[in-house]
Amino acid sequence: MERQERLIVRRSDYAPPSYLTPDIRIEIDLDDTETRVRTVMSVVRNAGGNAVTPLVLDSEGLEFQSVRLDGRQLTEGDFSLSPHALTIHGVPERCEIITEHALNPSANMSLEGLYKSGNIFCTQNEPEGFRRITYSVDRPDNMARITTVLTGSASQCPVMLANGNCVSTEDLPGGRKRVTWVDPFPKPCYLFAVVGGDLGVLNGQFTTKSGKNVRLSIYCDPGNEGKCAHAMESLKKAMRWDEERFGLEYDLDTYMIVAVGSFNMGAMENKGLNIFNSQYILADPTTATDANYLNIDRVVAHEYFHNWTGNRVTCRDWFQLTLKEGLTVFRDQEFSSDVHSRQVKRIEDVNKLRAFQFPEDSGPNAHPIRPESYMEINNFYTVTIYEKGAEVIRMIHSLLGEERFQLGMKRYFELYDGMAVTCDDFVRAMEEGGGADLTRFMRWYEQAGTPVVEVSSQHDAESGKMRIDLRQESSGGPLHIPFRIGILS
Question: Is the dihedral of CA 394, 398, 403, 409 positive or negative?
Answer without folding.
Answer: negative
